[in-house]
Amino acid sequence: MSGLELENISMRFDLPNGSYVQALQDVSLKLEPGQLLSVLGPSGCGKSTLLNIVAGFLAPTGGRISLNGQAVRGPDAERGVVFQKGALFEWMNVRDNVSFGPRMAGQGAAQYGPKVDHLIDTVGLADFREKAIYELSGGMQQRVALARCLANDPDVILMDEPLGALDALTREKMQAMVLNLWKETGKTVILITHSVEEALLLGERLIVMAPRPGRIYREYQLPFADQGVGRDLREIKKLPDFAARREEILSMIWNMEEEIMGSQGAAA
Ligand SMILES: Nc1ncnc2c1ncn2[C@@H]1O[C@H](COP(=O)(O)OP(=O)(O)OP(=O)(O)O)[C@@H](O)[C@H]1O
Ligand SMILES: [Mg+2]
To answer: What region holds the ABC transporter domain (predicted)?
Structure first.
């Protein structure tokens, strides 16, 4: 059995004061190999918790999770993570950051060298191989983070707001790069974002989560990621279908928040 499967995943955090937070409740999801899933939802709805469970950093308090038929029991190189920022080795240069995984896996320079150099070229940093991380802009650092993740050749790439700290123009360029890398490498990707536009542009599938308890509220299948590969994403954004979907999802999120706030108001 191939793909990533989550069955009734729940996560409850017990707090020191005796109360608890139900961060996730009965989240079920099946991702085929090579699919890109975007995840949207208000702050606190459990997006990072979900990603951390798939990464193996957190063990769920309920449910089952497997990758290619094998139960997920902890972190593994088959599941790579790209964080919003700050997870690089600041004192190492670009090449040493990107080659970190293969070196830790015991590969020699002759083995990993060509692959690492190719990845650095692919993310557009050929002139920066020897630069230290602190010498790079935020956008360049996220390119390094992506290349470092890909160097481990994971089956699944997990991204938590990877472009969230970038300026608008850099973010647009990086969106195109993520899309093209996804098609080229055939990786399964889960992308958390706060941007409806980004979720629509990059996700073949999109889930919108709701909070308290964290759960999947709506799911969509989308055509734009396939249409956008190798194209200027601004052209995609101008399509009438794109604008219509954006409005539909924005008003759905608006209504969802009204409904949840309303029910909390009634309970208070
Ligand atoms: N280690 C923890 N201990 C206790 N509560 C936690 C812990 N981690 C997360 N939570 C709670 O679980 C809920 C979900 O948190 P999570 O970080 O997954 O949300 P998120 O959707 O990623 O939010 P954001 O969009 O702000 O990043 C929140 O109410 C949060 O306070
Ligand atoms: Mg989060």
So the answer is: 4-236
